[in-house]
Design goal:
By secondary structure, this protein is mostly helical. It contains 15 helices and no strands.
Length: about 280
């Protein structure tokens, strides 16, 4: 077993599925970065190459980026935040996410059933059910024209297609605190975490909020701080919009997180589910 950048086929699809990536069967930069993150998290050499040891660990462990919390840990912590019925979320939200909620909620004031339901609904949708902790930028040429028409006029998209590193450097370069495209900072500070924290300015500010140098190690946002980074962003930008349980409020919060209303029906469904469970 040996998979690396440039590999193609069904084994790559299986690997990508386990990583929570789009299963296109092409081992590109995005897949390599996800493999490195897994290897780093699991005590393996972070070379981005899937040999027998990495393969067996990935196939046997399931979703990689996060580690399931022991049931006992969840049981000890679920009652620690202002009477929130966190135990009711079991089976609806992954245990490892539930175990992080008490400290996260306390740190960033997401500490009522209403606020938490809004927060989790947005996180759940943005991360594909708390599975994805890195932005998927493996776009085709046509996909780039459809999603980022401003950045890819004419036939420019042809030279960027299926190259996440080039795409992110182009789309995010020269803004959000990132240097120009040539620096590669657009890719370095691409979307990570359950609400896709993006841009050097956000990474730096989040790091200051938790007293850790996140800008020097941005992969921590996808591996260690997927929920906490999302809570920081949500508290800073969207928490004040969580005024009630109406559809209009869910729409307002969605626009704050997403910039539009993509996936609104799914966000509404999960908000109502979580709010019912938490009340």
């Amino acid at each position: 077993m040996l998979l690396k950048e440039g590999s193609k086929g069904d084994d790559v699809k299986k690997l990508q599925s386990k990583l929570g990536l789009s299963s296109d069967g092409i081992f590109g930069i995005g897949t390599e970065e996800a493999v490195k993150a897994f290897q780093l998290k699991n005590g393996l050499t972070p070379d981005g190459i899937v040999g027998e040891q990495t393969w067996q660990k990935i196939m046997g462990q399931g979703i990689l980026i996060t580690e399931p919390a022991p049931v006992a840990q969840v049981a000890q912590t679920v009652t620690n935040v202002g009477g929130l019925k966190l135990e009711n979320l079991k089976g609806h939200v992954p245990d490892n996410v539930i175990s992080q909620i008490p400290d996260t909620a306390k740190t960033f004031g997401i500490d009522t059933p209403l606020k938490l339901a809004h927060f989790l609904a947005q996180c759940g949708h943005e991360s594909g059910g708390f599975k994805l902790t890195q932005e998927n930028l493996n776009y085709s040429a046509q996909g780039l024209k459809n999603i980022f028409p401003k950045y890819f006029p004419g036939n420019l998209s042809e030279s960027y297609a299926r190259n996440p590193q080039k795409i992110a450097s182009k789309v995010y370069g020269g803004r959000m605190g990132n240097g120009p495209e040539s620096t590669g900072e657009g890719f370095k500070f691409r979307g990570r975490g359950y609400i896709q924290l993006t841009g050097k300015d956000n990474y730096t500010a989040f790091g200051k909020a938790i007293n850790e140098d996140i800008a020097s190690n941005p992969d921590l946002v996808s591996t260690k701080y997927a929920l906490l980074s999302a809570a920081w962003f949500f508290s800073k930008n969207c928490l004040k919009k969580c005024v009630d349980d109406s559809n209009a409020t869910v729409t307002s919060v969605t626009k704050c997180v997403n910039g539009g209303t993509i996936g609104l029906a799914d966000r509404l469904k999960h908000f109502k589910e979580y709010y019912y469970l938490l009340k």
